[in-house]
Amino acid sequence: QVQLVESGGRLVQTGGSLRLSCAASGRTLSRSIIGWFRRIPGGERDFLAGIGWNPGQTYHVDSVKGRFTISRDKANNTVYLEMNSLRPEDTAVYYCAAATGPKITSNIRSYTSWGQGTQVTVSS
C-alpha cells in the first residue's frame, strides 16, 4: 500500500499562493489516481481535484477551477496542488489520497490511502 505525506500548508494572506505537495512511498504513484481533498472545521472532506495516469488527465471542481491546479512529477513520485488567489474560505486541512482504477473519481470511498493532512490558513 502506498504511504502519502502532505506538506506545504501554512498561514498566508488573502490573495496569496501556496503549493502543496503529496509525496508517496511504498509504491509508485504512476498507476494511481490521486485526489486532493479538504476539510473545513466541522465539515466533511470535499473533493477538489484529481489526476490520472495519462498526460492531461486532470479534473478540478468548479469552485477551484482557474485558481487551483493539480500536477504530477512522476520522477519524484509526488503530486502537487498549486493554489492561487487564496481566500479566507480556503482555510482548511488539505489531504491527498490515492485510488485505483482508470478514472478520476470524486467518490471519497474509492480512495484507500490517505495522508495525514496539512493545514492551510488564509488570513483576511
Low-pLDDT runs of 5+ residues are none
Determine the fraction of residues in helical runs and give it as a percent range: under 10%
Compressed to H and E, one letter per element, the order equals: EEEEEEEEEEE
Shape: globular
Number of strands: 11
Return Rg in Å: 13 Å
Tally of separate helices? 0
Distance between the termini: 40 Å
Mean pLDDT: 93
Strand content: over 45%
Largest sheet: 7 strands, mixed
Which structural class should the secondary elements be placed in? Answer: mainly beta
Could you describe the 3D structure shown?
This protein is an all-beta fold and 124 residues long. Helix content is 0%, strand content 51%. The chain contains no helices and 11 strands. The protein has strands at 3-7, 11-13, 18-25, 33-39, 45-51, 58-60, 68-73, 78-83, 92-99, 111-114, 118-123. The strands form 2 sheets. Strands 2, 4, 5, 6, 9, 10 and 11 form a 7-stranded mixed beta sheet that branches. Strand 5 and strand 6 (58-60) form a beta hairpin. The protein is globular. It starts with a strand and ends with a strand. 33% of the residues are buried. The mean pLDDT is 93.
